[in-house]
Amino acid sequence: MTLLSRFPSSSATTQFQSTKKINSFNLKPVFTINCSSNSQKTSPFTEKHSVERYNRDSWVYNSHLQQPSSSSSSCPLPSDENLLRDYDIESQLPELKKLLEVLREKRENESGSHRRGPGNVFLVGTGPGDPELLTVKALRVIDSADLLLYDRLVSNDVLDLVGPNAKLLYVGKTAGYHSRTQEEIHELLLSFAEAGANVVRLKGGDPLVFGRGGEEMDFLQQQGIEVKVIPGITAASGIAAELGIPLTHRGVANSVRFLTGHSRNGGSDPLFVAENAADPDSTLVVYMGLSTLPSLASKLMNYGLPVDTPAAAIERGTTPQQRIVFAELKDLADEIASSQLASPTLIIIGKVVALSPLWPHAVKETFTSVEYR
């Protein structure tokens, strides 16, 4: 096994070194969120109680949120995540309502005698983390937004590109903590679109690849709201390219399959894996699969995938904090645990992994090109 980390350098060459309509709440404020600037400092993404999140969304808390102090050394949050979430939403309500009123007045003033219809909702994919992988169209839509609802896996570098006049609101989810339920996100999108706003829904990767963008699009279209999708580079493509792994390769892999490692019912068992997923001539890319990988790998090998199949696990791919574990399939789960990889981690399984210039093992087999007929 080899663990590789990506470090920012002064040169242009990347260096590798071994190593939701808004619900009402009748809650009373019982504490103040006060987070340290050291909290989650190494993450390129928005962690649930990070100071970056509250600074970015400070407009929505107004006087409710005590600004973090540079001398603070801890993040004294209550252990009850449900209480924290409810108070968080209750603190946001006054400013969200104010913004809705401002947008409605603006819409009425601009409409005159011709009533203007509802605003637009844009589902925008921001790629796996590197801001230079954003599309030109995504940048243009972000620049024209009134309100941007963003997920955890929209990188901080991407969010830094948002203009000063746009309003940002975190609606991300992590294991055990959903800042907004999916239904609440639907209602937020609907409320602001009905007020005439240009609403941008920022999602990591591509919004229609394991991003629940289809659910949001379906809900809004049923309410008569126009939805436009701006595709993003999905993690499989962006991260594989970063490592020099071709997801398909003549004579090596003639297909690629994307699989979610999450089960709708939770637990460590992944979604049903058909026997044909264990195809040695195909590439398997697993999103969100850290917790279910041991079970998945066992199933794949039981279905006949060779135990020495090359594999890679990539944490925080395409960001300066990227870390990579290379291993054969039989060893991958143990090596991931040993290296303590954290979410988000993408897993790539297949012979194409050995084509990466970073693959540390001696290639036992020479791959030959075969013309497809």
TrEMBL record:
Superkingdom of origin organism: Eukaryota
Family classification: Belongs to the precorrin methyltransferase family.
Pfam families listed in its UniProt record: TP_methylase
Its EC number(s): 2.1.1.107
Domain Tetrapyrrole methylase per the UniProt entry, residue ranges: 121-333
InterPro entries: 4pyrrol_Mease, 4pyrrol_Methylase_sf, 4pyrrole_Mease_sub1, 4pyrrole_Mease_sub2, CobA/CysG_C, Siro_Cobalamin_biosynth, Uropor_MeTrfase_CS
Lineage, top ranks: Eukaryota, Viridiplantae, Streptophyta, Embryophyta, Tracheophyta
Gene Ontology molecular functions: uroporphyrin-III C-methyltransferase activity
Claim: Transmembrane helix is one of the keywords in the record: no
A GO biological-process term: siroheme biosynthetic process
Species the sequence originates in: Castilleja foliolosa
UniProt-recorded name of the protein: uroporphyrinogen-III C-methyltransferase
Keywords: Methyltransferase, Porphyrin biosynthesis, S-adenosyl-L-methionine, Transferase
